[in-house]
Automatic annotation (TrEMBL):
This is Biotin carboxylase N-terminal domain-containing protein. The keyword Electron transport does not apply. Coiled coil: none annotated. It comes from Nocardioides furvisabuli. InterPro entries: ATP-grasp, BC-like_N, Biotin_BS, Biotin_carboxylase_complex, Biotin_carboxylation_dom, Biotin_COase_C, Biotin_lipoyl, CPAse_ATP-bd.
Length: 667
């Protein structure tokens, strides 16, 4: 398996069911990843970054040969759509589980693919190659395409190497930034310009071909809800596609596949406007991240079909005449903070549990499937995509699937890292989503101030803080040598309340014969504790009644952090030290790193006067670029990093302040 994480585990699951021996390759950063243990044998790829490891075709092929493999499954991302890699696999005497080298080459460049599709009669959008263009030439190409436009990576996907441009003054920076990001993610920085369709739906068709002349379409998926042009929610079928449109989409997709003699699993992507017209985007010559929703509505194991077709077998009857049953929705669960411009998160995943009926396989009836690349205790690093898992629900109708999926996500235990879980739940339960009103501008239109808000409201957060304080006390009391069963803080006589200081506020509580009295920052939190159980070290379950409603909360205490899970959602609280150590003074105007990463660009020089919002530098982490901009106008007093520098969270990158502040600081 020439890949990592969730897709490696997915492929291994089917391979085991088929009686195939499995081989994993892993970077140093992935040495303890769950997929490595899932394989029969694993081969180390020395290094951490994608370019050192999973993007090194020679290294991956050598690993396959060393392990005695006879075929290579590329998964998605990395080298999965690299024709040179597919060729190297075949030259080494191995079978590439994917389309022919010629088909990959034909679709490898999105520009060349568009020209080919035009000849095949598939509708396309105006576009232009931006390679090597600067100044007037670049401006002319953009004018010919027309604004607004997208800058897109020609040799990649997943939203990486993509920039939206509405103002010609932003064009040059967008082309340069997209090129850098594409080179990092795909090993090729070629980008092109394409007309932007306003508020389209992103609809794609799953195709499959075999070496016996069969080419089929396995219905459509809609992947319109996206952030940074990367899919977040995917479903099959699309709520916007009726039988007539489905037939036209499938006919166009099959025509595209036949134009390149396609064999194996692939996806033809389209943009669908509100008038029912659609336009070719690209052919992904691989399995898609969102393939489980197609598996759910067709009952087909697409990975098994890939292996069968690679072995020269014809597509089975159930694939040649597929049926569409029910509705399936998938969400991508990311370690990221939507409220902070989708800032990716890294660190230890203290607990990971999503209630699901099955892993990697379609439930036998309505239910939830989990495709995960992580487990409790895994360290999420900065070198790769921050996706933790895909959670998929199938039901006879779309609303039932959406609500089942939202419920599973809300009940999940996700401790240690900020995730997009609450946003996903709010999207799935929103009236607009349930009405099928989805397009690529969904998140922008409905606003992150609402969608990214925590599920737990203010009253709930106060209750969670008290519950966390009581759980911490219960854990301390359970270790007491005598009378461990008494509530911590209980007294026969009135006494001063016990105090726990969290980042969310100060909890004060006391017990007496009438029960508990508690407040957060002097605001009363009325509740009754009905039961407290210490489940195991660091884990407490409390049954609480508030406003006549009984509910059960589980608290996981890990060091100074308390993770509270309840029926209203989840909260993380950080207990503050009683005697905080003095912190080092940070110079006024300091710009600090919000995450570990590599400095990929420095856009200013010391002494330069810059405006508020002006780009200072760019950090690269988790295969994405993250701009660092000036919060206010001022002078660049200091630059503490240069291109290529590795920085940790909190590191001072630069100091931007007005001249008077800078001079007074220096004196």
């Amino acid at each position: 398996m020439a890949n990592r994480g969730e897709i490696a585990r997915r492929v291994f699951a089917t391979a085991r069911a088929m009686g195939l021996r499995t081989v994993a390759v892993y970077s140093d950063a992935d040495a303890d990843a769950p997929y490595v243990a899932d394989a029969d044998v694993a081969v180390r790829l020395p290094g951490n970054t994608p370019s050192e490891t999973y993007l090194d075709a020679d290294l991956v092929v050598a690993a396959a040969l060393r392990a005695g493999a006879d075929c290579v499954h590329p998964g998605y991302g990395f080298l999965s759509e690299n024709a040179d890699f597919a060729r190297a696999v075949q030259v080494a005497g191995l079978v590439f589980v994917g389309p022919s080298v010629e088909a990959i080459e034909a679709m490898g460049s999105k520009l060349a693919a568009k020209e080919l599709m035009q000849r095949a009669g598939v509708p396309t959008l105006p576009s232009a190659d931006a390679t090597g263009l600067v100044g007037v030439e670049l401006e002319k190409a953009a004018a010919d395409v027309g604004y607004p436009l997208l800058v897109k990576a020609s040799f990649g996907g997943g939203g990486r190497g993509m920039r939206e441009v509405r103002d010609p003054s932003d064009l040059a920076d967008a082309v340069a930034g997209a090129g850098r990001e594409a080179a990092s993610a795909f090993g090729n920085g070629t980008v092109f310009l394409e007309r932007l369709v306003e508020r389209p739906r992103h609809v794609e068709v799953q195709i499959f071909g075999d070496s016996h002349g069969h080419t089929v379409a396995l219905f459509e998926r809609e992947c319109s809800i996206q952030r940074r042009h990367q899919k977040v929610v995917e479903e099959a079928p699309s709520p916007a596609v009726d039988p007539d449109l489905r037939e036209r989409l499938q006919d166009a997709a099959v025509a595209a596949a036949r134009a390149i003699d396609y064999v194996g699993a692939g996806t033809v992507e389209f943009l669908l406007d509100d008038g029912g017209d659609f336009f070719f985007l690209e052919v992904n010559t691989r399995l898609q991240v969102e393939h489980p929703v197609t598996e759910a509505v067709t009952g087909l194991d697409l990975v098994r079909l890939q292996f069968d077709v690679a072995a020269g077998r014809p597509l089975p009857a159930e694939a040649l005449t597929p049926t569409l049953t029910g509705c399936a929705i998938e969400v991508r669960l990311y370690a990221e903070d939507p409220s902070r411009n989708w800032l990716p998160q890294s660190g230890r995943l203290e607990d990971f549990h999503v209630p699901a009926d099955t892993e990697f396989r379609l439930p036998t009836g309505p239910g939830v499937r989990l495709d995960s690349g992580v487990a409790s205790g895994v360290e999420v690093g900065v070198h790769y995509d921050p996706m933790l898992a895909k959670v998929i629900a199938w039901a006879p109708d779309r609303t039932s699937a959406a609500l089942a999926l939202a419920g599973a996500l809300q009940r999940a235990r996700l401790h240690g890292l900020t995730t997009n879980r609450d946003l996903l739940v709010r999207v799935l339960r929103s009236e607009a989503f349930l009405a099928g009103e989805t397009d690529t501008g969904f998140l922008d239109r409905h606003g992150l101030d609402l969608l990214a808000a925590p599920l737990v409201d203010d009253e709930g957060r106060r209750r969670h803080a008290v519950v966390a304080a009581l759980a911490g006390a219960a854990l301390r009391r359970s270790a007491a040598p005598a009378l461990a069963g008494l509530p911590s803080g209980w007294r026969n006589n009135p006494t001063a309340p016990h105090t726990t200081v969290f980042d969310a506020g100060t909890v004060r509580y006391s017990f007496d014969r009438s029960g508990i009295t508690a407040d957060l920052d002097a605001a009363p939190v009325p509740l009754t504790v009905l039961g407290t159980d210490v489940l195991r070290p660091g884990r407490v379950r409390l049954e609480v009644e508030a406003d006549g409603l009984r509910a059960t909360y589980e608290v996981h205490v890990q060091g100074d952090r308390s993770f509270v899970d309840g029926p209203d959602g989840s909260t993380t609280l950080v207990e503050q030290p009683r005697f905080p150590e003095p912190t080092a003074k940070v110079a006024p105007g300091s710009l600090t790193a919000a995450m570990p990463g590599t400095v990929s660009r420095v856009a200013v020089v010391e002494g330069e006067r810059i405006d508020a919002g002006q780009l200072v530098l760019v950090l690269e982490a988790m295969k994405m670029e993250h701009p660092v901009v000036a919060p206010a106008a001022g002078v660049v007093q200091a630059l503490h990093v240069q291109v290529g520098a590795q920085v940790e969270t909190g590191a001072t990158l630069a100091v931007v302040a007005d001249t008077e502040e800078g001079n007074s600081d220096a004196s």
